[in-house]
Amino acid sequence: MTYITKPKLHHPTLPKNALGFTRRDYEGKISTLCAGCGHDSISAALIQACWELEIEPHRVAKLSGIGCSSKTPDYFLGNSHGFNTVHGRMPSVLTGANLANRELLYLGVSGDGDSASIGLGQFAHAMRRGVDMTYIVENNGVYGLTKGQFSATADQGSKSKKGAINSDTPIDLVSLALQLGASYVARSFSGDKEQLVPLMKGALRHRGAAFIDVVSPCVAFNNHAGSTKSYDYVRAHNEAVNRLDFMPRRDAITASYSPGEIIEVTQHDGSVLRLRKLAVGYDPGDRLAAMSHIAAHEARGEILTGLLYVDGSADDLHGHLKTVKQPLNQLGEAQLCPGAGVLAAINAELA
């Protein structure tokens, strides 16, 4: 926990958007995550996207589950609505809030453990129902709050900090989102702000289930034996008078590469990600082609990034259910309790 707060006064020359807000107005509290964590880069991209879109902070409802990623909504949009749910249950709570008040912009932030394990069923139904939301998974392949066990998205054959080898087949949330009917599906890398910010802007403006999987390196537990930054190595080469665990300060990993290009990104533990950015001529309007394209490049050891699929004519859950546009908390007693006659007519329709 930190008791350091950000100053409320901003420099008068900071650029403002059409609403009169500076980028600082979209920030939250000071992050308590490890220095160099990719999650903080994702928060920064969200701040930039909301500022550029000129979104009124009070119109945003941000929800999360449990985990390092689910702490991050505290670090952006400090003047928006927020709710931290229980482990894996963010999608259902967000669905209920969305049905009660469709006027807000809903932002769900989760992690690979929160969404691909205990919350996998919740994730599936939010996608297939077309809940109008931007669903961001900050994906690092580990459980960062419980000492770095493999998550369900960890690559088969990858090595943990303690040297264990993952033998399980990974879950690809992007492919799953496509199969389940999400109408906006993208993947990016936390250090590629040039790509990530536009993807977030598109998702925030999309009607329906928008999903973005963001590969986000963990500085603490992508840190296996053999690394000169591991705890064991430091202890063996430390002549300090006492024994202390510490988190070495790391710089956030960044990447910049052109459409169609492949780049190898070395993570903090020395492992390498092979990211391929979709080419300019790629057609994101074909769901089946997107699934095939992902599988083909996965077989080559490449992770596709960019806008993989979008359906610009997609409807959302409100459209499917034909709900009223007015938020439930604005309906009067006569509308909420129309009387026994109306109830009888509804029951008759169901007979």
Layout of helices and strands, plus pairs?
Blueprint: H1 38-52, E1 60-64, H2 68-71, E2 81-84, H3 90-100, E3 105-111, H4 112-116, H5 120-129, E4 133-139, E5 142-143, E6 149-150, H6 173-180, E7 184-189, H7 193-205, E8 209-215, H8 231-236, E9 262-266, E10 272-277, H9 287-299, E11 303-310, H10 317-321, H11 333-336, H12 340-350
Parallel strand pairs: 1-2, 1-3, 3-4, 4-8, 7-8, 10-11
Antiparallel strand pairs: 5-6, 7-11, 9-10
Helix pairs in contact: 1-7, 3-5
Salient structural properties:
single chain, 351 residues, alpha/beta, 9-stranded mixed β-sheet, two-stranded antiparallel ribbon, 30% helix, globular
Mean pLDDT: 85
Distance, first to last CA: 57 Å
Overall 3D shape: globular
The helix/strand order is HEHEHEHHEEEHEHEHEEHEHHH
Residue share in helix: 25-40%
In order across it, which strands form the biggest sheet?
A: 2-1-3-4-8-7-11-10-9
Which regions are unreliable across 5 or more consecutive residues at pLDDT < 50?
223-248
What is the percentage of strand-forming residues? 15-25%
Domain module tally: 1
Top-tier CATH class: Alpha Beta
Oligomer: single chain
Task: Describe the main β-sheet briefly.
Answer: 9 strands, mixed
Output the CATH topology: Rossmann fold
CATH superfamily: Thiamin diphosphate (ThDP)-binding fold, Pyr/PP domains
Number of strands: 11
Task: Using the 3D structure, state the CATH architecture.
Answer: 3-Layer(aba) Sandwich
**How many individual helices?**
12
